[in-house]
Design a protein that fits this description.
Elements: E1 7-13, H1 20-33, E2 37-40, H2 54-60, E3 64-65, H3 69-76, H4 88-103, H5 107-114, E4 120-124, E5 127-131, H6 150-159, E6 164-167, E7 174-177, E8 183-186, E9 201-209, E10 213-221, H7 225-234, H8 239-247, H9 259-263
Parallel strand pairs: 1-2, 2-3, 5-6, 6-8
Antiparallel strand pairs: 1-9, 4-5, 7-8, 9-10
């Protein structure tokens, strides 16, 4: 992928979680910024209401998607979301979220999810990019800023022949510069706030130019979160899900957080 202007702008979306309102707002912002292409790193459904409203937006805006663990589960109609929770409370909410998403995703969209690629590789202005959901090793692997050593991330880049690895899955954006100009980027998620008391969500914009210039910008997205919470209530989704959308604090699925990331939250 090259540009006659010598630079390429790529928008990276993570974890939409059925939040079609945030997706609409993000895509409008991406258009204004003149991105050359848009990619989604998986988990289109979960957590929110009306999962089928996401797909027309993705198709209309030619968003290239890969398969997250939720997409694999819904596409193949598996028993659970493959989220890997062990805490009884977190599993309770995970089951509610998954069952609702599965029941409200049409057969046509389930088939589409089933056939998505697990990874996408891009060659952009001399950079080798690897797009994945959790990690290159495993779709549902959590890579956290506080627990991933730079040495390990450099090993991943070397092992999987990538200059830049882009992932999502954790729900919290972060990046790290590595040796030899390489980079790891967690692009964040659009589906829910990142446990910081703010109601906005995030996507990531890459600006890539030769020779070896890479700019990573985390872009906040404001949307009608109060409407989303109302629609959650109308669909009978848990009050805990609504509270996260309205306050910006995670109320469930907390067991996955390492100690440092959990201390940043309220619960």
């Amino acid at each position: 992928m090259t540009s006659p202007m010598g630079s390429v702008r790529l928008a990276m979306l993570g974890g939409i979680y059925s939040n079609y309102l945030a997706l609409e707002a993000a895509l409008a912002d991406i258009r204004r910024r003149g991105a050359d292409a848009v990619f989604c790193l998986g988990d289109l459904g979960a957590f929110g209401p009306h999962p089928d409203r996401v797909f027309p937006l993705l198709h209309e805006h030619q968003v290239q998607c890969l398969q997250g663990n939720y997409d694999d589960s819904v596409g193949h109609e598996l028993a659970d979301c493959q989220c890997g929770y062990t805490d009884e409370r977190d599993n309770h909410f995970a089951r509610i979220s998954y069952q609702y998403t599965l029941e409200h995703t049409s057969p046509e969209h389930r088939r589409w999810l089933r056939d998505l690629p697990r990874q996408i590789r891009l060659d952009v202005e001399g950079w080798h990019l690897l797009l994945c959901h959790g990690s290159p090793r495993r779709t549902n692997e959590f890579l956290w800023e506080s627990t991933c050593s730079t040495h390990f991330l450099e090993w991943l880049c070397h092992q999987y022949h990538a200059d830049v690895i882009l992932a999502t899955h954790t729900g919290i954006k972060w990046q790290r510069a590595l040796g030899c100009g390489r980079r790891f980027v967690n692009v964040g998620v659009l589906g829910r706030p990142e446990n910081d008391g703010s109601t906005n969500v995030w996507y990531t914009l890459l600006e890539i130019a030769a020779p070896r210039k890479l700019k990573v910008e985390f872009v906040p997205v404001a949307y009608d979160h109060e409407r989303l919470a109302r629609e959650m209530a109308e669909e009978g989704l848990p009050a805990e899900f609504q509270q996260t959308i309205l306050t910006g604090w995670w109320t469930c699925c907390l067991e996955i957080l390492p100690a440092k990331e959990r201390r940043r939250g309220r619960f």
